[in-house]
Write a structure and sequence with these properties.
8% strand, elongated, 9 strands, mainly alpha, single chain, 15 helices, two-stranded antiparallel sheet
Length: 360
């Protein structure tokens, strides 16, 4: 059902309602009367608004006349102002008035000004920011300063590139040497070895047979080094790393060694794999390959931290970091220390005095 908004009659459909509102005479008359009434209301509102505007204009003119009678004169340039605040703003901002004040040596106002250190111009505190942004001498100084910094930065980048190229060359040399050494070790490992059935060999074989299996899984090695490797170990370089590996990785829960060195001169180390196989690890290549990456990561964290906290020991920090970084290519000190720790009970005794002399 639809109801007419003018005469309130009700219709079944909207179509009938629209036809009624556009054709039935009495409904059309009601619509015209409402439109005429609305028009009169609008005219009355416009008349009232016009009266209000006229009254407001009269009040504004009266206020303006009252304010003009209370105007204050500037003692320097003679301009008129309505309030003391406007007068004070004018005296501290208007350039022509400030020049007159300087010529009349008005210290009260001049003491409030800020002098630009680049061009020497005086400005009010509120205007100084604008002047500082457009000061030509300051901008020229900053351009020259930026140019100098850019040149220094380019020189620094060039030096870093040269150092990087040198590091690449050194790394390639070390890598080639390591590959040659690994190839030599592989060749030695392929050759059959014949040992005399001497008392020393029997003792060494007995020690090897008594070793417990060594777990060198990467997850275990990473976890132990992350937890146990300390700043004291870092400051001892490869020697500290060897002590850490021996104590926490190459020793079982009962304190028994899991690696033994039978020949310190040739760097022959023995251990049993996780499945119980006998492994001969020449120069600790297999062991070092497992521990090098986590040691290098942990040492890098300590080096970054200590270089900020202890800049006086920067040379020592760099040396220790380099020692750990070069562990795979130059493991001499690591292997000598590890041989001292793992070979003290083997049949062939270690000459610790000669090892100490070599370290020195």
């Amino acid at each position: 059902m639809f109801q007419c908004g003018y005469c309130s009659k009700i219709f079944r459909t909207n179509k009938i309602l629209r036809h009624h509102q556009t054709h039935v005479m009495y409904c059309l008359k009601i619509q015209e009367e409402r439109k005429a009434l609305s028009k009169k209301m609008i005219e009355l509102q416009e008349i009232e608004e016009a009266k209000k505007r006229a009254n407001t204009k009269e009040k504004d003119e009266k206020i303006k006349l009252q304010e003009e009678s209370k105007e204050i004169n500037c003692q320097f340039c003679g301009n008129h102002f309505k309030t003391k605040y406007l007068l004070r703003t004018h005296q501290t901002h208007a350039k022509y008035c400030l020049k007159l004040q300087e010529s009349q040596n008005s210290q009260e106002i001049i003491s409030c000004l800020i002098t630009c250190k680049f061009c020497g111009k005086n400005s009010a505190s509120t205007n100084f920011a604008k002047h500082d942004a457009i000061c030509k001498k300051k901008n020229q100084f900053l351009i020259e300063e930026i140019a100098m910094l850019k040149i220094e930065k380019e020189k620094e980048i060039a030096m870093l590139k040269i150092e990087k190229e040198k590091d690449k060359e050194i790394c390639s040399i070390y890598k080639a040497a390591a590959e040659r050494a690994q190839a030599t070790n592989d060749e030695i490992a392929k050759k059959p070895t014949y040992q005399k059935n001497s008392t020393k060999n029997i003792q060494n074989n007995l020690m090897i047979s008594n070793l417990t299996p060594l777990d060198l899984s990467q997850a275990r090695v990473d976890s132990i080094i992350d937890e146990k490797y300390t700043k004291n170990d870092f400051y001892e370089g490869q020697k500290g790393a060897a002590h850490l590996v021996h104590k926490y990785i190459a020793t079982d829960s009962e304190g028994k060694p899991q690696i033994v060195c039978t020949d310190t001169e040739r760097g022959i180390f023995h251990h049993k794999s996780a499945v119980g196989d006998h492994v001969v690890d020449y120069k600790n290549v297999h062991l070092i390959k497992k521990v090098h990456s986590p040691l290098k990561r942990k040492a890098g964290e300590f080096a970054a931290e200590e270089s900020v906290k202890n800049p006086t020991a920067l040379k020592e920090i760099i040396n220790n970091m380099t020692s750990i970084k070069d562990l795979e290519t130059k493991p001499c000190l690591f292997n000598r220390t590890f041989a001292q720790l793992t070979g003290k009970n083997c049949a062939k005794q270690i000459d610790t005095e000669s090892l100490t002399n070599e370290d020195e």
